[in-house]
Design a protein that fits this description.
106 residues; alpha+beta; 4 strands
């Protein structure tokens, strides 16, 4: 039942798009993809290595927009983020408490 509702979204179909971020200026592109009923997997590895400040600003704006629009946002790995439209339930698994050394960068 739920799957059928997802498939009959705004544009008739739910899609998954993988997008390699090359610039922190791609914010609008990401929003447009999610608005068009796509689950977006963002590869942030290029920005992570070159423009950490730009990446931080982009992720803060994206987090704020996701809260406002009731979209899901989460990290799949150190290099991959996922943004989901509100029609997709994003369940975040609680991580076990990591040793202090592993937590410091966050």
């Amino acid at each position: 039942h739920q799957l059928k509702q997802l498939e009959e979204g705004k544009h008739g179909q739910l899609t998954v798009k993988v997008h390699k971020l090359k610039s922190d200026m791609e914010y609008q592109t990401i929003l447009d993809m999610v608005r068009n009923n796509s689950i977006v997997v963002l590869d942030i590895s290029l920005l992570k290595n070159s423009e950490f400040t730009g990446l931080k600003m982009l992720s803060n704006k994206l987090k704020q927009k996701c809260e406002e629009m009731r979209w899901g946002l989460g990290a799949l790995s150190n290099d991959l983020l996922m943004v989901t439209p509100s029609s997709v339930k994003f369940e975040k698994r609680k991580q076990e408490t990591a040793p202090e050394a592993e937590v410091k960068g966050f």
